[in-house]
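Hey, quick one: can you model this chain's 3D structure?
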Amino acid sequence: MNYKHFYYCLLLMQLGCNSATTKDPILADFSKTMQLKMENSSIKSSDIGEIVDMLVIDSLLISDEIFSKKIFKLYNKRTGKLLSNFIDKGRGPNEMLFPRILNYYNSDYFTLFDEDKRELIYFSLNEIRNKNYQFYCKKNVELTADESFATKSYLLSDSMLLCTGFFANGQYALYNLNSKNTNFFLDYPYDENHKGESNRIKGTAFQGEISIKPDRKKFANATRRIFEICEIQQTDIKRIFRKIYFFPEYKVIHNSAAFLSTQPYGFHSITSTDTYVYLIYSGRSMKEYGNEYYAGNNLLVYDWDGNPVVNFILDRYLKSFALDVKQMKIYGYCTNPISGEPEIVTYQLPQN
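Sure thing. Here's the predicted structure for all 352 residues.
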């Protein structure tokens, strides 16, 4: 047995032991567990930077990166070939500064919110396939008042955005791109230690990641160790499920929430299908794991009623992932535990 094979056997034994004996109430919610073994994606480590998010559309894998001079990379997911590296980082025309969550909208468009310029950016897949990497179009999002600062926006229809951020009047906002009207909905969660704080502070403490159900009638929000599902009814948002496993532990510094380094990280990197919501769960702290603290080896699956379905235990700790819905295959961004190099691996999900 070579050392790599021995390492993987040892890792799988450890993962199985950890899952069986865990006292984490989030993992304990899942009575069904299944171990998945990764496969190489053929994407070279030398082509991969510090990925923020990924999106799979047809034969393409699109990633956005935080430290590279150019933000987006386009791969052929079948061959692993890097097809293009596009959009310069900056504040000029056809430039962006902060990469954010990628959102698939329809057969031709995906969008991304530019927090710095307060713009919703549209990209056309047809244009990208024709090697035109310019912004297809962009629209202003005028939520810029001190207590109404949007950080993420998700396109629900041609005219309506779902926004999260630091809002004085609610946790979520529906913003009309045509009329510029905004409506706010639902209160931030809080515990007794932080009950009297402003929504600005609560907003910094409860920023999460959202996935829109493909029919655009529901969305799931994963905020550290709080998971909730909301229903979108025309111009209204109703919360239909919330599970608060733990409230975040933080101190207020400069009118913002500063999380304790000893606090375990929770959910991150979320996507969904018509039937299920998929999330990576970490459960690791910055104090113990440093910059790798948010990576997780538990791919948790809930249904759209909030019921735990299965905990897929992975043999890599993923920092971000995308789902190929047609193939039911996960593309995960992680660090190779032996070489320390970045890599994108795949996991085949069960078909039933």
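One thing worth noting: Helices lie at 3-21, 25-28, 125-129, 199-205, 286-289.
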